[in-house]
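Customer ticket, subject: "Can you confirm the structure for Ferritin-like domain-containing protein?"

Message body: Hello, I'm evaluating your service for our small team and ran a test protein. I'd like someone to confirm that this is what the system normally returns, since I don't have a reference to compare against.
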Amino acid sequence: MNILKLLDKLSDDKFFTKEASRLETLTNISAFGKKAAVAAVPLGLGALMTTSTKAAGFTDNTYKNTLTDALQLALVLEYLESEYYTIGLSTAGLIPNADRTVFTQIAKHESAHVTFLKNTLTSLGTTPGAKPTFDFTAGGAFMPFTDYNQFLVLAQAFEDTGVRAYKGQAGNVMSNKTVLQAALQIHSVEARHASQVRRMRANKGWIELADGGNMPAATDPVYAGEQNTNQAGFNTATAFGAAAGSAAYDEVLSGSDAQTIASLFIV
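Agent reply: Thanks for trying us out. I re-ran your input and got the following:
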């Protein structure tokens, strides 16, 4: 099938208002692939990425390439995004009225993702993990709920990283059509979130090289590797230049890297 047609077909947000009917098709899910999509991930702090961190909220310190482990990881990350936007919207005077519509809609999407993942885990006979306790200051490094600019910085980093994380798991869900469809739908929505928030910060809607676009150095791990211009043996920089060549292909984020980064925001 033409991948562009597939992505277009699967980009309908209405999927997440129909969890029950879609989940009826999950009865045989355990017979399919062993891995599932990883959802939106927050940014890492450069200094902390070089130290040992506790993988709070996870079953252990190592990302495991199994279906339920991947879904549990995805759930933790969606819990994080959902709570971040919920707190932001409930903080008086933080989000300007002109921007509240955008973040209200994004918050609804993230909440729907949480519901879907919990229902999917339950359908597999696995108890969904409880929502961890989050520290969105990352130990005092940020003050996102008193400074709107910092709120936008973290929102951009969350969304940009989420897009990379989904691509990192795409090949692992190809054998399961139901999970693949959901992963593609969430991925396309996260990409729209990322583009919107980037433009709200007066950035381009895409990433060029490893430059997040007027982002603090602490968010460098979110964009590490994005300078790659070699795709399947083809050097895109030769034909289009390094900036355009790198921007034409977004890079992936591994599950273990996603867990390490997310743990920085969990108490």
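A couple of notes from the result: The chain has one domain: 47-263. The longest strand covers residues 230-231. Feel free to reply with more questions.
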